[in-house]
Amino acid sequence: MNLHALIAQPDAEPAVNIALNIGFGLIATVMIFAAFSVVTTKNVVHAALYLVLVLAGVAAQFILASAEFLAVAQVMVYIGAVMVLFLFGIMLTRAQIGKEDGLNNQGWQLGIPVAIVLFGLLGYVIFNTFEDDVLEERAPFPTEQLSDQYLSAYLVPFLAVSFVLLAAAIGAIVLARKD
Amino acid sequence: MLAVEDTHAALELSSGWFLENAWLIALIPAIGFALIIGFGKKMPMKGSEIGLASMAASLVIATGAGIQWMQRTDSASHGGDEAIGGAFSGVRGVLRASEGGEVEPYIEPVVTQWVWWQNSGLEFGLGSHIDGLSVLLLWLVAFISLLVQVFSLDYVRGDRRYTHFFAALTLFSSGMLVMVMSSNMVQIILGWEIMGLCSFMLIGHWWEDAYNSHSALKAFFTVRVGDVGLLVGTAILFFGANDFAVANLDSNGFDIRAIQAWALSGDGSSWTLIMASSALFIAAIGKSGQFPLHTWLPDAMAGPTPVSSLLHSSTMVVAGVFLVARIYPVFWEGFNIANGGLSFIAIIGGITIVVAALLAFVQDDIKKVLAYSTVSQLGYMMLGLGTGAWLPAVFHVFTHAFFKCCLFLAAGSISHSGSHHSFDMKKDMGGLRKFMPITFGAWCVSTLALTGVIPFAGFWSKDEIIDNVGANGYTFLFWVGLGGAALTAMYMTRATYLTFFGEPRGAAAGIHHDDGGHDEYATEFRETAIRSADLVAALPRSLSAAANVPGDDIEHDAEGDPAHGGHHADEHDDHGPHESGKLILVPIVILAFLALTSGFVNPTPLAGDALGANLGEGVELLKKYVEPRYEPVAIGETAGHAGESVQLLEVTPLPAAEAGADGKDAYATGCGRTDPEPGTVCYFPKVKHAVPELSKILLSLGVVALGYAAAIGFCIAFYKNKNPRLVGLTERSRIARGGYLFLKNKYYLDLLYQNVFVYFVSRPLAKATYWFNQNVIDGAVNGVGTSGKKAGDWVYNNIDQKIVDGAVNASGTVASETGHGLQPVQSGKVNQYGALLFGAATVGAIVLVILNVS
Amino acid sequence: MLAVNFLLLAAVLFCIGVFGVIARRNAVLVLMSIELILAAVNLNFVAFAMMNDNIDGQVFALFVIAIAAAEVGVGLAMVLMIYRNRKSIALDGLSEMKG
């Protein structure tokens, strides 16, 4: 993959913060490795743990992108709740824990060309459009500003999402209930 | 005194606690509803005490708000130093412009509003908007609801869903109160829908019976048809008025006052106004049971009698009238009422008056007579609103609530104690005046009020509507109104005669053939038309029953209602007709008293010379306190200042409108279609008031008297003396039978809705295809066949068999082959679908990128 | 820091997620791959929010997190039901929709 392009930074950019870039590169490397492992490992529990790594990396990237509230929410929701759900799901659906064959489909190779073509397309478009755009360092967005948006401009979607969550909770109970 | 010499006079309006906290009037019953639902069953009186207490609290606050509103109005006229007592004694400091006096200022409503929710800067308020109209209706709704709940204490005692009944009744009142005090259209929709839901719950209160649940559904869905109009109209008004409201009034296009001001400002195009007013009037048609959608109202009688009474007097059906009255400027401008345009509202109102009154003649069910009577009276209100008689229409809402509620409660009292839970006038009533003297007296007072006999309430309001309709130049509708008054007198005489006079029949004579159906219909749910043959078969029996054939002939009527057992144990040991208990009689007597007196709050004929009294305009309390003034207000000062007890208002008086040659008000130019003066808005159009004349009063009284005389004569001849020329007329005369059937089947409107509209959704294609097949294709084939069999054979053998069939078969084969070819793609495997999905999306994106780049 | 960094990282995660959805047979693993895709989308939202100095991107990222939580809850409940009914959560066995 295009890992090299991610880490190598052009020195000509004056606004670039070297330490930030090194941090970003390290985290990104770990994330990409972990993501690969999620889709290739033969142990389902390991896949879940690699996924934790990826999501923690996303949270770290959020901090770099001055989205602190989101980082905290990411940790709490994904690592705190969603991963526990996944682990429970694995335990409830499988007795055996350990390496296992047959986690992949018959035609799993089909995914490789699709993924590579898709990445080629995305990479081309991204480089073409945002070649020189620099993300300027800035103070984190205050959480207050976020909440203002939720409770004014996005109030109705906010309410709608709360209904979606309620419906999902009820639906999950109905589906998973033994009867 | 208001100093009108200044162009800008500071005006101090008093306010008060009740006016600013009027939202409690609706909130208390809503809380009461929650409490009844939550704790009602554990309370000693099963929750009814919570309902009564909350309605009583609402009534207290509404009364306080009413008194303070009067003080506020007086403070504008008299600088705040004169109490309302002066108004009652007929003393007025300021003459109205029509009397050659000074211009009265616009009285700012007291608006208290909170932001309920908002979306991208658009705020939806929830609160109270208190002016004369809302104060009047708030008080009315709270008062009637309280009386109806008192009545219900005894009436539904022992019902299996007693607690739920009171809960729904309380919420119903709350819904109406929310709507009446609305400060914006969204709140109107809220109250409107609460009422729709509660009417469904209450009409279907005894839903075990299929008829009742059908009726509830019918009421709900018929009203829903109109509700679409409410949503559309609100949207149109919003998009029309929003810019104006944001720019000038610091509010948005949902705000009632903004809509009123916008409609009168000349800012909106007439097309927008016509669309909005038509859509909103469709909503009013549905809710207020106007002509094409009136069919749900009589079926709504399936609910318990207190529900019918509340529904038909002050809530629900009045909601449509209130909607029109509330944003009257929209209708005023949209239908061009100012210039005597023949408005949609007036036409529908006029049609409804006559159509419903005729239907009331053929009903055997006492509640249905009253239901059609309500529809007819609502027609009067709409007629008044549609012809510019705003005040008389609102006045009629006020008086009608008392006497119609009284009539319904009297009917309930009769069925409760006199006719053993039956509402059939022909089978189970008659001669009840001896057994139920108080009910009879109340009924008579209310009937006289309904028919518009002079000192009773209905006269002052209904006659004023008719008078104004004539004075505003609608001559034909004037005669329609008069004819309606005569019809009213006739059908009410028939109902009164059948119920209270003659010999007792059925249950009224102590014969009990039904086993305790509680306030339910002895009739089945009939959706099919009554055919002529059925009528001939059925009529002699009912007529003979009506004509007092002794009991043994009536016994077989018991077969008609076998299904009503087991609803509740019959509590009445005394099986003869008797007077009802105090809890039932007290509300009836209070209402009857008001039916007698409530007209004197606005006796226009007494104000002038028409009846020789000439008490001055001071006796017209509603005109003074309820009708909004049309004077323009400077824009900068109109934003509602909630929480301030004293408001300063900049008033720009127009030059006093020049009186016409006949003493009537001339239309103001400031608030018509032409733009008002820059910097001012007005909130109410300049409506005309007719000057009563003795000749017109005598004319309408004469018409009513004629109606009474004809009806009494008919009743005596037909029911008492069984005049052979009249009895059996419907069997002998084709015209009479046709008319009777037409009415009995309610103009076949139900059939139309049921068979045409409903089936038009479900079976149109099948029917159309069948018809096409039978008529067109068969005809063509026959034509071909007769013109030459050979040609037909050739067509059949060659074109049909070879070409058409061949084409059909070929296309089938192609489809089948294609399907087989593509079958492997539909593997049913999720991953493969995912691969195809992402692959296709990628390819599509690549195509887009290439197209864009090159 | 270049905007391209974030966007490319998101693109890589997205493609890995797509590969996972296509390649994996185990339903739980497919759900995990979907989480990868959603995480990539969130990264994009946050990066664009920073780029445009506008907080709306973060608002939407939080919506995505909420919806993702709902999706996982319902998805795992469905997986559980499938497992209970057929003692397997292999997706290639679920081919009743086969044409």
List the main descriptive attributes of the protein structure presented here:
heterotrimer; A: 179 residues; mainly alpha; Four Helix Bundle (Hemerythrin (Met), subunit A); B: 854 residues; two-stranded antiparallel ribbon; 32 helices; 4% strand; globular; disordered N terminus
Main sheet: strands, sense, barrel of chain C: none
Average of per-residue pLDDT values of chain C: 87
Helix content of chain A: 55-70%
Distance between the amino and carboxyl termini of chain C: 51 Å
Order of helices and strands of chain A: HHHHHHH
Instruction: Tell me the CATH superfamily of the largest domain in chain A.
Output: NADH-ubiquinone/plastoquinone oxidoreductase chain 6, subunit NuoJ
Strand residue content of chain C: under 5%
Oligomer class:
heterotrimer
- The dominant shape of chain A is globular
Mean pLDDT of chain A: 82
Short synopsis of the structure:
Chain B is mostly helical and 854 residues long. Chain B is 61% helix and 4% strand. Chain B contains 32 helices and 6 strands.
How does this structure look, described?
The complex is a heterotrimer of chains A (179), B (854) and C (99). With 179 residues, chain A is an all-alpha fold. Chain A folds into two domains: 3-101 and 109-137, Four Helix Bundle (Hemerythrin (Met), subunit A), CATH 1.20.120.1200; 142-179. In chain A, 70% of the residues lie in helices and 0% in strands. Chain A has seven helices and no strands. Chain B is mostly helical and 854 residues long. Chain B is 61% helix and 4% strand. In chain B, the strands form three sheets. In chain B, strands 1-5 form a two-stranded antiparallel ribbon. In chain B, helix 10 packs antiparallel against helix 13 (317-326), helix 15 (344-360) packs parallel to helix 21 and helix 21 runs parallel beside helix 26. The radius of gyration of chain B is 31 Å and the shape is globular. Chain C is 79% helix and 0% strand. Chain C has a domain at 25-90: Helix Hairpins, CATH 1.10.287. Chain C has helices at 3-23, 27-52, 56-86.
